[in-house]
Amino acid sequence: MNKKTIENIELKNKRVIVRVDFNVPLDENQNITDDTRIVESLPTINKIIADGGKAILMSHLGRPKGKVNLKYSLKPAAARLSELINKEVKFAPDCIGDETKKIVNSLQSGDVLLLENLRFYDNEEKNDPEFAKKLSELGDVYVNDAFGSAHRAHASTEGITKYISIAVAGLLMEKELNYLGQAVTNPKRPYCAILGGAKISGKIDVINNLFGKVDTLIIGGGMAFTFYKAKGYEIGSSLLEEEKVELAKEILKKAETSKIKFILPVDVVVANEFKNESPSQVVAVDKMPADKMGLDIGPETIKLFSSEIMKSNTIVWNGPMGVFEFDNFEKGTFAIAEALVDATSKGAITVVGGGDSAAAIAKAGLEKKVSHVSTGGGASLEFLEGKILPGVAALNNK
Ligand code: AMP
């Protein structure tokens, strides 16, 4: 990686302002239902404490739309972090202002402070320079450890770097960039990408970019049905993006002349309706009944996809193969997760994009058995599109 990291700078007695991603899900009583994002940021926070820096953490949570709304307060995250690091975590009820400055200036070496939700100000998402400058005044050095927000040029991810000369990556950010970076720029071949999920629309740029990079491109999930429609197959009431059929035709044409293997499912599990309990059956993709919908890939497809995965040395997976949220239609997605685990144990580099694929592999209980599960859904997709993430570009080069 060509960016400086927290390992390359002096932290002792420094006010280290860190953009973390504590955008954790909360229930109606503001209990954190999944603390993965906080846990993932611990290596960076613990390093700052161990090196005698003062950790000033900032994050967004939810979409408070530029207004103070305590439903989106980060206070529960401070309490959870305190339990995880077994140490007091101070909390500032505002992310800027004189009071916050006072709290920051009272910090001792090794202290940890979490600021209130950045998005209580709409200036954050607008990347307002004045707001970015105010944030910058709270730190001597800046660390970005929020990979999940790095694809957005916001005040806390990009604007702030204009006012602090030392701006480096945290350890989580470094890990994300190393895994995704290797997959994108220097993959061990054969390189296989598996895309799934509901829609082609969010993944067109990824498909196009991967055409030039991968050896094998596998498409599953709901987005496969738009390709079948393009091939003229009956798809019943399966998910369809009518306005993307032409595009799917173009992609299929490109696949015919390209050197890469472009693979679609060969069989599907169809159901009468979009319900877990709906009776289901397996049919070949060109034999779908008009009154049914496809909710998962079938057993022959699982065999086909798994064998391609096992032949590969780098595998990137983004998007479930079916409606994995329904226990009766999770099989295809879980089988792909299992294949990734097998490939990992044989030495392949396996990377799972964030978002739904991360949720799926966690539901399968296999998240620790692949090389890397990204914490950023949108950010990992943009990375695979070949885009430069503004929050990364803004950091100091080595
Ligand atoms: P995305 O956000 O585009 O990655 O889509 C993820 C969603 O796609 C998940 O909630 C899955 O339930 C859904 N999905 C995957 N396969 C299908 C399918 N065959 N029919 C309907 N939804 C699907």
Q: What does it look like?
A:
This protein is α/β, with parallel strands linked by helices and 398 residues long. It has 2 domains: 6-172, Rossmann fold; 179-384, 3-Layer(aba) Sandwich (Rossmann fold), CATH 3.40.50.1260. The protein has helices at 36-40, 42-50, 75-85, 98-105, 129-136, 171-185, 204-211, 224-231, 245-257, 299-310, 331-345, 356-363, 377-384, 390-393; strands at residues 15-19, 54-58, 90-92, 112-115, 141-144, 167-169, 191-195, 216-219, 261-263, 267-271, 280-284, 293-297, 314-318, 349-352, 372-373. A 6-stranded parallel beta sheet has the order 3-4-2-1-5-6, sandwiched between helices. Strands 9-8-7-13-14-15 form a 6-stranded parallel beta sheet, with helices on both faces. It has a 3-stranded antiparallel beta sheet with strand order 11-10-12. The protein is elongated and about 70 Å long. The N and C termini lie close together (8 Å). The structure holds adenosine monophosphate. Residues 197-199, 202, 221-222, 239, 294-295, 319-320, 322-323, 325, 356 line the site of adenosine monophosphate.
Rough outline: elongated
Percent helix: 25-40%
What is the tally of helical segments? 14
Uncertain spans: none
N-to-C terminal Cα separation, in Å? 8 Å
List keywords for this structure.
alpha/beta; Rossmann fold; 6-stranded parallel beta sheet; 33% helix; binds adenosine monophosphate
